[in-house]
Amino acid sequence: MTHNIRQWIKTGEPWIWLNAGAVTVSVLMVIGLTLLIAVRGMEHFWPAPVEAFRYSVPGEKPVLFMGQRVDEEQVTAFRAGLAKRVDPNQLVSRHLYKTGNRDFLGIDFRWVNALDMENLEYPDEAMVVERREWGDFIGVLKAVKRGDTVIESGTNVWPLFQRVIDESTAIFDEIRHIEKDRIGGINYRIERLRLQERSLELDGVTGGPEFDALEAERQSLQREYDSYTRRLGELYEDLNTYSFVATLADGKEAEIPLSKVVRAYRPNAMSLVGKVQFYLAKIWEFVSEDPREANTEGGIFPAIFGTVLMVIIMSIIVTPFGVVAAVYLREYASQGPLTRLIRISVNNLAGVPSIVYGVFGLGFFVYFLGGSIDKLFFPESLPAPTFGTPGLMWASLTLAILTVPVVIVATEEGLSRVPRSIREGSLALGATKAETLWRTVLPMTSSAMITGLILAVARAAGEVAPLMLVGVVKLAPSLPLDGNFPFLHLERKFMHLGFHIYDVGFQSPNVEAARPLVYATSFLLVVIIITLNLTAIRIRNTLREKYRAAEQS
Description:
Elements lengths: L1 H9 L2 H30 L7 E6 L7 E14 L14 E8 L3 H4 L3 E5 L3 E5 L4 E6 L5 E10 L2 E5 L3 H46 L6 H31 L2 E6 L5 E5 L3 E5 L6 H17 L2 E2 L4 E2 L2 H32 L4 H13 L4 H24 L14 H25 L3 H9 L4 H30 L4 H4 L26 H10 L4 H36 L1 H5 L1
Antiparallel strand pairs: 1-2, 1-5, 2-3, 3-4, 6-7, 6-11, 7-8, 7-9, 9-10, 12-13
Helix pairs in contact: 2-15, 4-5, 7-10, 7-12, 9-10, 10-12, 11-12, 12-15, 14-15
């Protein structure tokens, strides 16, 4: 028996099974983690029912509650504060409710013990109003007002309420378009005129036709600005016309302007189709809108856009440098001690903590290189920095340096797998070494190069520590890409999915409201990284099959 086991171990088969088992466990862990994040994140967008109940604690005045149950747990009676009423070690249930109405109740999440809940109901008239400020409002709609006049109340108020919300949303969208795009563009051009005027002054020009042309353009922009300002005044007057009256769980009435309302819905009265439509609309809002309420509400489109744009710029920078370095080390450099030292250094760079790259990027790129660029090309902007401050360009360069070892190592591995006979055959047919490399060797290495690039992209997409020093911010006032010349603004700060997760998860003033968004954003980031890796595997396998015949010949 022992002899058979030894023979079996010598065959190497146990190590194959061990390797397969390790891979299986790793895959299952990845799938389990992804499913956990997906379930905890995506369930947040489903319209949870509104529960109304009486919360009666012995010795205290009963309280009427209305809210959405978002979590529940089993705890000991001692921890739940029920030790005087039941066995301290007995497990009891308690529920976390989102009660909303932070501007009226002070907090919008609270734990309640199931033991003290009475008369649980699901009233159809209970509504949830998503607001741009103060979080959700939960109550029962009573009336819609125009100014001080009630225009509708009773059973017919809900359809009118929805129509007025749609009108207010359209007005709000127009206001945002004018403020961000129109007036923002005018302010940008006025600032450019100021910088041109300052540049002329630095060149010793203090008057003349150049100044007259700039002043004429400034006056034209000012007239355009004034017209948009008047239009904004009219829109704000229309936006602030309507309000609604609703009652809270305890019967108190509240009047809220419709200018603060994003949407309103009655989850208890919604059909399954209506809930699915609402769910899809919320997911679309999450990936296409700007954040609000300290990043705990709204969407994460600026973070998605910033992450993708930074990765694209990083890829454009890292690919040629990584491939050229690998080609030199493998094809041209003498394979001596110096080359081996360089190769070891490249491999060691992959293990340097990412925050070190961030410190390097801040010191070299931002302060030294960016400050020098400002002095040479943007003296009219000084002392305000242009490139001498963290921004998109320096973040992309920092991550390019961080990921270039991955591209170098992957490309070198691909070059080493190209048979020597391929090179000799090309040279024998009269091709130069450069032609052999460009037309024969590099195409056969393309699968390894692309694999290295996308692995680098996957790592860069998840990095956070260096970006905190070289350009990422909690909330960017504008995107790095817009309609103002030169359209791509590499000096601007930007938002990033990884930093957004950190900020919402650890810096949010409303932890309970932020928690589901942390899961949802994490799931989106994991999906992006998994997609990039699967794409790398697909491209690598396709190119490997294409050049397999050449490698075997």
